[in-house]
Amino acid sequence: MESVGTEAANMGEREFKSCDRDDVSHLSLDIGGSLIKMVYFSSGSSSPSDDQKDSYLNDGTNTSIGTSNYNGLREKLHFLKFETSKIDECIKFISSKHLRYYGSLNPGGQDNKNLASEDNIIKATGGGAFKFADLFKEKLGIVLDKVDEMSCLVAGANFLLKAVNHEAFTYMDGRKDYVQINHKDLYPYLLVNVGSGVSMIKVDGDNEFERVSGTSVGGGTFWGLGRLLTKCQSFDELLELSRQGNNRVIDMLVGDIYGGTDYSKIGLTSTTIASSFGRAISANKELDDYRPEDVARSLLRMISNNIGQIAYLNALRFGLKRIIFGGFFIRGHAYTMDTISVAVDFWSKGEAKALFLRHEGFLGALGAFMNYEKNGFTDITHQFMEQSCEIAQDLVCKDEDL
Amino acid sequence: MANLREREDHRELNIGIGGDLNIDNLADDKSKLNFDTGKDRGSTVLGKEEQLRDKDMGPKAGSSIHRSLSRPQLDLSGAAIQGNFEEKDPAILLPNQSDDISHLALDIGGSLIKLVYFSRHENQPVNDRRRKIIKARLGITNFNRRSFPILGGRLHFVKFETAKINECLDFIYSKQLHRGGMDSRSWQTEGPNTESTVIKATGGGAYKFADLFKDKLGISIEKEDEMNCLVSGANYLLKAIRHEAFTHMEGRKEFVQLDSNDLYPYLLVNIGSGVSIIKVDGEGVFERVSGTNVGGGTYWGLGKLLTKCKSFDELLELSQRGDNRTIDMLVGDIYGGMDYSKIGLSASTIASSFGKAISENKEIDDYRPEDISLSLLRMISYNIGQASVVAKLIDIVISYLNALRFGLKRIFFGGFFIRGHAYTMDTISFAVHFWSKGQAQAMFLRHEGFLGALGAFLSYEKHGLDDLLVHQFVERFPMGAPYIGGNVHGPPLGDLNEKISWMEKFVLKGTEITAPVPMLSPGTTGLGGFEVPSSRGDSLRPDASKLNVGVLHLIPSLEVFPLLADPKTYEPNTIDLSDHGELEYWFKVLSEHMPDLVDKAVASEGGTDDAKRRGDAFARAFSAHLARLMEEPSAYGKLGLAHLLELREECLREFHFHDAYRSIKQRENEASLAVLQDLLMELDSMDEESRLLTLIEGVLAANIFDWGSRACVDLYHKGTIIEIYRMSRDKMQRPWRVDDFDIFKERMFGSAEKKPHKYKRALLFVDNSGADIVLGMLPLARELLRRGTEVVLVGNSLPALNDVTAMELPEIVAEAAKHCDILRAAAEAGGLLVDAMINVQDSPRESSLSVPLMVVENGCGSPCIDLRQVSSELAAAAKDADLIVLEGMGRALHTNYNATFKCDALKVAMVKNQRLAAKLINGNIYDSVCRFEAATSPSPSLSFS
């Protein structure tokens, strides 16, 4: 068995297991507003060694790798991220891989239909699949086969929830608990994908879903506003700042309004946030008078809280018992998850729990990858599913330090 | 790692902005005593004869016997509607109420202090014989009315900036609101009342400023629950104000008429610093179902950090010029300009608020503050709209689960964040529309900022406002309204002289000033609360879309005209002024008519320098109102022509022109009366049927005399009254443009198939003085009387143009009766002639052989009439009426042309306006309208056989 994807906290360490270029196949992309997520499949026995690749991955992208051992070969599913603004690096990366076969079967595969026509096609989703289609065509001669974003998110999530035993977990008060979900009792659930914006999707079955809600206040807002307010250079830096902040400096709490007392009549304690950034109103302070840490913290709270609330309310509206959060905003960040969890807990009066996914950021890319299956390449995913079930067993003990 | 403490504070919530604080003065014991005294004086003690001699409205006095003494009540006997002067000239006259009641309520928020107070004023007694007679005649004293919690007066809505709380304190002090509201004249004589007044308060400001109020005014603050206040304030407004709620889509306001019986449950979203989403199920029954901490405080707080704006309004104003696309990531940005139509997202939908700030190498200073403000505003408004819809949708689910048939009907948004800001409202509306897939509509409230203060006001047990109904409120806009838009403002100006000098200074300042400059010395009023004057220029003022909040006049004596077929759907105005072309036209008409009107008004006051000064001030004030309405037609609520015309009359009264056409009316009455005898002889020589035709022709012909019509004013200079009258009548070529005369005739005289119909009582809504009443309507009245129909002449309560008033009618009738036995007998029977007084009191009906001719006032002082708000005596007179005759353009065309009634109605007018003629009847100026409509559904109260 191969070792498993890094846990969230270690993502930045780039435990990237490179793969032999010859064996790379089935690459899929999710090109979002801020990030490009890439999933590809490799097989072969080459050892990781590629210095050249590292330079791309250094730039604010995180990687995680799921691997699987199949038919005696080391077969791996790779998960990579690039910033959308640095799409050239992504293109260079693909180019460097010499993905001969792109969406087609790798040499070890069995099924050989339509090889020729599949040669230069890769599955892609996200808005960028449309926006950058010409770029890919021009630079790589690749045709992006656009797959609907929501379908991909759902397919990716369904796959992970079914294939990986300990994909989902709750996070409360710093404690992470994996949740075993019975495959037969998976549906319906609410999938909340927190990317630049937020989509809320009611999932009723393998390919049955509806986007029931969403909000423009998402990861892009956190990062965009945060950048303006703190001059951070990266999303992760901003997240890190928020860890050290105290939101009470800037948020107006119930106690601030009610002279330190609760407004218990409507169930609000004095420490409840009455108005995010509300204190910035009255104080004679400028932006520079606030610690960036505190600003980042308030911002994170505001956005996480809001997402948690809207998600829960939508779950309530449709009577959904599970709310699963994915998307790159979360990044396994403890405080983010905690805030979302608390919002769900608060609004549901303890009835509902927020669930998070280990592969949170790759739902769309994975879903696009799964889409090859529809074209007849069923085995890989099926086999991968089987394999990954075993892998998952090992995950439990490796994530304790989260 | 997060710990428990942290966990606690992320709970959301919201709270309306700083919280509400209401202050109010309970009427002290002394004033209670006075109420009781007044009440006794009104009726219980006095015998019937004394009652008649007493000023007025006996019925209310009669009912007061049953009132509980524990409730302060006003003596409404003698109540009369008056002009809209701010201070010394009350709208409602309660001559028998000996003392003022005032209540004050405050809502002290983080940025604004909202103040609601009630005032009532002493007033000169109205000694009107006609009213006593009509009461006796119509038996109003025995009329079984519901007993009002009697309270008439005015409700004022005033805002101050919290930062300038001293202005608020000064204002309260200058109005003596902390003493129970005695005005400055009376409190001095009675000596200061040093008893501590208790004022209820709600929200955070109550704590913060409690000591200040205690120190400065000796007021003790008592806290009222914030949510309670919001809800009761909203409930009240939605029930009491006809066009309180409106939708706002793509910059367009539409007022919504709500059925107060079909209001609950609804969702109230109060956007303060945070947001509360409250489900309201009824009076005092509500639950805070949701909320969010992303609210007005977030907008302002984040906005302040990002843009360095100094005030909330500055930030809002910035957003006005912003372009959010520079910062927000749109669906099109992600999809390369394409829509994501599969899930209903267009390219311009915001995918991620502030999402573009990610990818560009820009610092905060590289963005325009305007764009930042707009992005922020959209983000927050949109989020609130969404949260509200979700709450509504959840309610639908819960209702469904609980087998409740009715879910939330509407979503209302209030709170300081909105501030009548068009873009905010549009964004919220859009979000609600979008997320509900068009199933829900956001509604906003004209008094949005005053929910809490009003709720606090209502929390006083003894305000008596609960029982007032929508038709008993009249909202009027003080002179300063046009200049302040919806901005923060202090009190209306006080006496006439202040008003005039204010107007004059305004003019001196030139047109660049749009906000008034305080005229009174600082420290005496709250006038300093005005916004900084802003430049007008060509650009739209950012506050242009804001709505004005007027003074709410509470007039318990008003009633809905009982003969309206369907009061719920009744709309008085025929022409829709929301059509901008129509609006422009009428503004032009009114502006052009202004110099002539000013001349008349000044002449009516003797042409003195003082009168000229007032005339100029009037012209400026009314012009300013017109300009304001051109800028924002909805500024004063739903605008109809009737309102516009009434506004003009109110402005005249505001500058003490009580009857600009007095001398003209007198002259024309005399001239017409002089020729009446000839006319009556001519009529009497005809057979019945041709006489009826001649009478209707006469009404139409005489209706040409109208000072409200520019065309007719020109005509006036070309001949004498009787010449014009005869010429005009002779030119009546049937068929008229609208000609139901034959139907009316058949109704009167019968035909082969139908029996003649004898009307029991006819209400004649008369129009102008002079020929119109004397040569037109009186002869028609006489004919009806001759046929055994009781006739009630319905005249204006207050002068408007040259319209004949109820006060003037008895004299005209008396004069006419000198030439006509029929009129004399009927007038005697109706108590209009002095000789008949004794008979009236003894046994009104049996004492005379004739059916009576009576006069009632209609309750308004406008050339038009809104039949939802008429005087109680007209309502009483309508009880037995089975024929209504509406005469003249104002009452039969501009308003009520499409009104349907429970009894037969005849609408007769000559169209003296080309545009109206073209629009309404597809005809020309001087075309005639004679529209007859049989009762829409036979009313049980009418006995036809």
Automatic annotation (TrEMBL), chain A:
EC class (word)? transferase
User: Cross-referenced InterPro entries, in alphabetical order?
Assistant: ATPase_NBD (IPR043129), Type_II_PanK (IPR004567)
Report which reactions are catalysed by this protein.
(R)-pantothenate + ATP = (R)-4'-phosphopantothenate + ADP + H(+)
Q: Name one GO cellular component term.
A: cytoplasm
Q: Cite the entry's keywords alphabetically.
A: ATP-binding, Coenzyme A biosynthesis, Cytoplasm, Kinase, Nucleotide-binding, Transferase
Record keyword Nucleotide-binding present: yes
Per the record, the pathway is: Cofactor biosynthesis; coenzyme A biosynthesis; CoA from (R)-pantothenate: step 1/5
Q: Where does the UniProt annotation locate this protein?
A: Cytoplasm
Q: Which GO terms describe its biological process?
A: coenzyme A biosynthetic process
Which Gene Ontology MF annotations are present?
ATP binding; pantothenate kinase activity
Query: Domain of life of the organism in this record?
Result: Eukaryota
Q: What is its EC number?
A: 2.7.1.33
Q: Name the protein family.
A: Belongs to the type II pantothenate kinase family.
| PANTHER family (UniProt xref) | PANTOTHENATE KINASE, PANTOTHENATE KINASE 1
Q: This protein is called what?
A: pantothenate kinase
TrEMBL record, chain B:
Cofactor field: Ni(2+); Mn(2+)
For this UniProt record, the keywords arranged alphabetically read as follows: ATP-binding, Coenzyme A biosynthesis, Hydrolase, Kinase, Manganese, Metal-binding, Nickel, Nucleotide-binding, Transferase
Species of provenance: Salvia divinorum
Family, according to the entry, reads as follows: Belongs to the type II pantothenate kinase family.
Query: Which Pfam family is one of this chain's hits?
Result: Fumble
Tell me, what is an example of a GO biological process annotation in this record? coenzyme A biosynthetic process
Entry keyword annotation includes Plastid: no
Instruction: Tell me where the signal peptide lies.
Output: none
Q: Which GO terms describe its molecular function?
A: ATP binding; hydrolase activity; metal ion binding; pantothenate kinase activity
According to UniProt, the name of this protein is: Pantothenate kinase 2
State the function annotated in the UniProt record.
Catalyzes the phosphorylation of pantothenate the first step in CoA biosynthesis. May play a role in the physiological regulation of the intracellular CoA concentration.
Name the enzyme group at the top EC level. Answer: transferase
Question: What pathway is this protein said to act in by its record?
Answer: Cofactor biosynthesis; coenzyme A biosynthesis; CoA from (R)-pantothenate: step 1/5
What are the Damage-control phosphatase ARMT1-like metal-binding domain coordinates in residue numbering?
598-920
EC numbers listed for it are: 2.7.1.33
User: Which reaction(s) are listed as its catalytic activity?
Assistant: (R)-4'-phosphopantetheine + H2O = (R)-pantetheine + phosphate; (R)-pantothenate + ATP = (R)-4'-phosphopantothenate + ADP + H(+); (R)-4'-phosphopantetheine sulfonate + H2O = (R)-pantetheine sulfonate + phosphate
